[in-house]
């Protein structure tokens, strides 16, 4: 039986999901601008810079000619969209910080604040994980891994058994976020037991091994974070920021 979320629980997911969509739109617009300029032989322009509007007006092709008028007008409009998206992302992040500061004990906010104390985990990642999976009533670690989309998809026929990669079931946002977090975790929590477990099993330095084992690390890390916010058990070797 599927648990139907309340309106409040579903609404709490909207800021994180909206921000994810805005970040993706920002990337698409930036890539489109770079592609338009690359056709003219210009590859050094960075749309994300604050000085991008001023630099756009002074751009010249390798032959020394200015940008065609229609291309220049399109790029100006794209920069306007980027500016609007940047402001909206900052507005979402500011509203989240304000909610956490004004109502630290409301709903799932204690989980977010605790998770954000883990060095390498930002407020955005903490909020996404809590709202999407960690605040759900999951019965055990296997259910956590399955809902996070970090379990395998075995194909069994008689005595034959083979893995077909990650199962398509599960929360795609959690899966993407945890894989990214696992790579960051190796950088910021080098002395943790999980990071050492990963390094021992990837000592051969093969790329395929690292990619396979990062999924296993993401699964173990998700279970460890679930135990942290539900029971208060700190993963071995993980360093926390001081409580605010």
What does this structure look like?
The chain has 244 residues and is mostly helical. It contains ten helices and two strands. The protein has helices at residues 7-12, 14-38, 52-57, 69-102, 109-115, 123-134, 141-147, 172-188, 193-201, 207-231; strands at 152-157, 160-166. Strands 1-2 form a two-stranded antiparallel ribbon. Strand 1 and strand 2 form a beta hairpin. The radius of gyration is 22 Å and the shape is globular. 21% of the residues are buried. The mean pLDDT is 90.
Indicate the overall shape. Answer: globular
Structural class, by secondary structure, is mainly alpha
Helix content: 55-70%
* Strand fraction: 5-15%
Mean of all residue-level pLDDT scores:
90
Question: Looking across the biggest beta sheet, what order are the strands in?
Answer: 1-2
Main sheet makeup: 2 strands, antiparallel
How far apart are the first and last residues' alpha carbons, in Å? 40 Å
Tally the beta strands: 2
Features:
single chain; 244 residues; mainly alpha; two-stranded antiparallel ribbon; 2 strands; 61% helix; globular
Short overview:
The chain is mainly α.
List the helices and strands and how they pair.
Layout lengths: L6 H6 L1 H25 L13 H6 L11 H34 L6 H7 L7 H12 L6 H7 L4 E6 L2 E7 L5 H17 L4 H9 L5 H25 L13
Antiparallel strand pairs: 1-2
Helix pairs in contact: 2-4, 5-6, 5-10, 6-8, 7-10, 8-10, 9-10
């Amino acid at each position: 039986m599927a648990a139907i979320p309340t309106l409040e629980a579903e609404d709490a997911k909207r800021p994180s999901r909206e921000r994810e969509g805005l970040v993706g739109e920002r990337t698409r617009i930036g890539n489109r601008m770079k592609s338009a300029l690359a056709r003219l032989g210009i590859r050094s322009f960075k749309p994300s810079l604050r000085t991008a509007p001023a630099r756009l007006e002074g751009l010249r092709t390798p032959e020394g000619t200015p940008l065609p008028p229609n291309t220049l007008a399109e790029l100006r409009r794209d920069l306007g969209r980027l500016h609007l998206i940047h402001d909206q992302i900052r507005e979402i992040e500011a509203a989240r910080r304000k909610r956490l500061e004004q109502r630290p004990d409301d709903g799932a906010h204690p989980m977010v604040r605790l998770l954000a104390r883990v060095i390498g985990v930002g407020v955005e990642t903490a909020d996404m994980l809590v709202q999407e999976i960690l605040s759900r009533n999951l019965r055990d670690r296997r259910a956590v891994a399955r809902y996070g989309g970090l379990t395998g998809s075995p194909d069994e026929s008689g005595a034959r058994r083979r893995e077909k990669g990650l199962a398509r079931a599960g929360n795609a946002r959690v899966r993407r976020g945890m894989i990214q977090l696992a790579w960051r975790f190796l950088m910021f929590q080098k002395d943790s037991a999980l990071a050492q477990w990963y390094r021992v099993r990837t000592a051969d330095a093969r790329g395929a091994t690292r990619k396979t084992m990062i999924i296993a690390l993401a699964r173990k890390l998700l279970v460890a974070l679930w135990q942290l916010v539900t029971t208060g058990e700190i993963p071995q070797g993980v360093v926390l920021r001081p409580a605010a």
